[in-house]
Amino acid sequence: MTRQEHIASVNALIAELGGGIFAGVLKSFDFGAFQGYYVNAPKIALVQLVDTGLIKSIEQDKKIFISSPVLPRPHDKVLRARNAPTDTTVTTVLDATWGQARISHRIPDQTDYTYETISHPAAATVYVIDTGIQTTHWEFNSTSKPGTSRARWGHNWIASSPDTDENGHGTHVSGTIAGLTYGVAPRAALVACKVFDADGGGTWSDMIDALGWACHDAAARGAVNASVVNLSAGGGFYQPINDAVSAAVGLGLAVVVAAGNDGGRVGDISPASCPDAVAVSATDEQDRRPDWASWGPGVAFFAPGVDVTSAWIGGGGQESAVLDGTSMSCPHVAGLAAYWMGMFGGHTPAQLRARLGRLATNGTVVDAGAGSANAIVYNGNKVYFDEVTDSVG
Questions:
Q1: Which molecular function term from Gene Ontology is one that the record holds (predicted)?
Q2: Which DSSP category does 141 fall into?
Q3: Half-sphere exposure in the Cβ direction for 225 (13 Å, CA)
Q4: Residue 263 DSSP one-character state
Q5: Is 327 a catalytic residue?
């Protein structure tokens, strides 16, 4: 039986047992090892589906919400141009955000962001599965193609919702990834995948569908290993989303996720509990893990997540705000992945994780939590990378 024939038989069964009041298969998932569908069906039909032996598991879809422990705080933005490279390979941004400065230095309390540059970087793309992106924001302007944006719209899963960010969370995340002022990778491209509404609400099924969409889009562009997914969201443990992340990684797409903001063990949170995801927890300016930042085995890295300034919605594309959360830590790492992909070409998920681990600043996080990897991400600053051996020289 083909997949199409199976779905047709499922719809026929639901129509027969549901009296015509159930919609049947509403979404179909088909990417890598993740094969499934989302149905509206009576319980008796689900029982019969399990009895066929063709179904691995059935899980109820659930509503999830983006959350941040502190409401956004206004920021008096001062647009600052990046200074010219101090030599042929290094750019230094003076008066950078503390997050940018922290990931480009081994010690805290620095004020500049230093990173390597090349004239013609490779294309690197970050899929932001979130509340959307205000693609017209100044932060996402292209320096190589004036008048255009490096952020494009991918897909919108929120019914009757405009193709823009009505919440702000996704735009803030995107600014940390690739903003001209606030971004770790200011040349990277962004793709908006909107799965959360203006109130920050969404569903697991839409998040799974967005992961599949990103996999297919990256494959169609021939750029799977030059792309990364940023998932600054999550909820309680949910095996289907963990399986979906594993499938995306299995196809070669790196997935960076927020560890969570409930202060508990990361193993109780999805998708951060997925072993194939790069789960990121938060630190403050003193390299301390906040009480609300999740911890434990599964936390792969730490990155700045307190008082993070980035782009915000409204204001004619000039607004910014300050947020706290592992949602803010996650894009520092996704941006770092895009930066390396732009500098050195494609990375498999395993190569990305290895590079992050090899360069990380170890042992400096205060109260990292039992089982957490005590490692703050680091971009290498002025260190030369040998791509043949992937070692630091």
A1: serine-type endopeptidase activity
A2: B
A3: 10
A4: S
A5: yes
Residues belonging to the chain: 393
What is the residue type of 383? V
At residue 151, φ and ψ (nearest 5 deg) are: -105, 130
pTM for this entry: 0.93
Q: Is 130 a catalytic residue?
A: yes
Annotation says 329 is catalytic = no
Which is it for strands 391-392 and 385-386: parallel, antiparallel or unpaired?
antiparallel
| Residue of 68, 105, 130, 329 with catalytic role | 130
| pLDDT higher than threshold 80 for residue 389 | no
Torsion angles phi and psi, residue 112, rounded to 5: -120, 155
pLDDT in tens, 224-267: 999 999 999 999 999 999 999 999 999 999 999 999 999 999 99
155, 169, 332, 347: the catalytic one is: 169
CA–CA separation, 103 vs 381, rounded Å? Answer: 9
* Beta-bridge partners for 391: 386
Distance CA 371, CA 379 (A): 24
- Contact between 207 and 214 under an 8 Å Cβ cutoff? The reply is no
194: its two tokens: 């909107």
Write down the catalytic residue from 281, 327, 329, 372: 327
Who contacts 353 (Cβ-Cβ below 8 Å, separation ≥6)?
A: 254, 278, 300
